[in-house]
Amino acid sequence: MSITEMPSNTAHRVLRTAYQKSVAAYWNAEKNPVNLRLGEVDDLYHHHYGLGEYDPSVLEGPAGTREQRMIEEMHRLETSQADVLLDHLGEIEPGDRLLDAGSGRGGTSIMANARFGCHVDGVSISEQQVGFAGDQAARRGVDDRVRFHFKNMLDTGFDTGSRRGIWTNETTMYVDLFELYGEFARLLEYGGRYVCITGCSNDVQGLRSKAVSRIDEHYTCNIHPRSEYFRALAANGLVPIDVVDLTPATIPYWELRAQSEVATGIEEAFLAAYKEGSFHYLLIAADRI
Length: 289
Prior knowledge:
Elements: H1 11-14, H2 18-29, H3 33-39, H4 63-87, E1 97-101, H5 107-116, E2 119-124, H6 127-139, E3 146-150, E4 163-169, H7 177-187, E5 188-201, H8 210-219, H9 226-235, E6 238-245, H10 247-257, H11 267-276, E7 279-288
Parallel strand pairs: 1-2, 1-4, 2-3, 4-5
Antiparallel strand pairs: 5-7, 6-7
Helix pairs in contact: 3-4, 4-5, 7-9, 8-11, 10-11
């Protein structure tokens, strides 16, 4: 039986809490144009934000094609974000195995296989996303090396020490970090690398801001404070080797998206939180010791 044919009666073993069920329901129903229309540009579907300056010329020229130019530019920026994440995985060989924890519609997993030639497993608690991503891998002819699973990233069931690299891309705000990094420490081989890109609240400023609370509400998530990441990593033998504040590099994406027809209404909260300093867009790369 293929991953995409997995019966839904396994859901009670994957979705362990009412909250997880609500998150899965959200993503099973999600058909947001800001994800789907961007993916249609080159059939590579992401579920994360973008990095880098946008080309201002996309806002110029014929009005009839302006929106499509913006869609293509936002997709370029979100693909650049995935490239930045993959850049931080270190040396990956074709025989290595990677884990995409919270793999969405599969874009970064497919990019990782194309870059490294390695095996990639993606896990998601959304059966709809797993099916979509699996179909994408099959259409590209890489489903023998890129597989998507209806699994909980807190308890994957994969073999201990089986992963050279693991990443989370804007997914950690749905789980307890100490539990998550305990599972990742189990899965990573000695010296293996974990890379995280996430939005996190700035606890130097105290309690979360109204803008950050609005983001939580919009995505049914629970954004962690910045310090929580480093406490949870240290508690599980994961030692940061690189920490990069991506906040300035992501603001242009949000400024462009706010002008697009696919804006969802959350853009103002992101821009306010980033610019007031209550929210950071952070990359953390950490090694298993």
